[in-house]
Amino acid sequence: MARNLTQLELLIELEPIAEANVNRHLSMAKAWHPHDYVPWDAGRNFTAMGGADWDPAQSQLSEVAKAAMITNLLTEDNLPSYHREISDNFSQDGPWGTWVGRWTAEENRHGIVLRDYLVVTRGVDPEALEQARMIHMTNGYNATQLAQKRIGTKAIPSDCGFMVSVAYVTFQELATRVSHRNTGKVCNDPIADRMLQRIAADENLHMIFYRNICAAALDVSPDQAMEAITHIIREFQMPGAGMPNFRRNGVIIAKHGIYDLRQHLEEVLLPVLKKWNIFERTDFGPRGDQLRNELGEFLDKLRGDVVKFEDQRDRSLARDALRAEREGALIS
């Protein structure tokens, strides 16, 4: 019979799994230094030119790359909020505490290297970037509260923030990996591509840790874990939601294949659900079976939404191409 556990009981039950996965992560993680991925000579060149103020002409990034890089950086900047949420829902002792500290230190490198790269290469207006950082970090982020606000506190008990957080970060870390990897491809700069591939490799290891913890939670309390997983998938939002220009940049990112609905479905949701054997499991109770059916219906709807989105995107890109062709003809 499926059993529901309190947050403390889950932490105690899963502590051996956490310890094994912390050790696994430490054995696989590669040390790297942000300064090794920053083209410092570019900064010296701009200084030698005598210009202190930023000018849009100095940026070598396309509008697509710029939108993706800024969104990725501001997302990484909100690390204090993510640290607070993880530390509030995990224990500060033993392997849980070790993981919180290690994960936070590794994530911090991402914001450091992205900002250094953008400032040194004059990729973005540093003043506007700082203003956006202040707004986004002041607003903060709390995935558990947002999920409960959207789906109702009755759906997920208030003491199950751990399960909600673990389910969320499993998908979020993988989504971030996809976004970083594809951003590198559109930067048209081998240094930026190498930097973002390095960040994406970190995100993948982080995802594996959380995915393994959630897999163990499914074994310990399948219906309870399924509750969190189903609701997080239904209400999923990237952690950058709410940052300045997020909607505009999100449209650009989706429109140009940095992170779109098909990638969300086929590269994030479905691989993780397959890894957990969600649709093959036989240990769910009545509630778990009901949630699995609801999740299957949601995924079927999402597949239809993917087709609609791609039709709209293709029409929009065709209009953009036609407009560019006409403008080129007028100039010539």
Largest sheet: none
Radius of gyration, in angstroms, nearest whole number: 21 Å
Shape: globular
Helix segment count? 13
Content-based structural category:
mainly alpha
**Pattern of helices and strands:** HHHHHHHHHHHHH
Q: Write down how many β-strands occur, each being a DSSP E stretch of 2 or more residues.
A: 0
State mean pLDDT (0 to 100 scale): 88
Which spans of ≥5 residues are poorly predicted at pLDDT below 50? none
Share of residues in helices: over 70%
Give a verbal description of the structure.
This protein has 332 residues and is an all-alpha fold. 75% of the residues lie in helices and 0% in strands. The chain contains 13 helices and no strands. α1 packs across α5. The longest helix is centred in the C-terminal third of the chain and has 46 residues, at 286-331. The protein is globular. The termini are far apart.
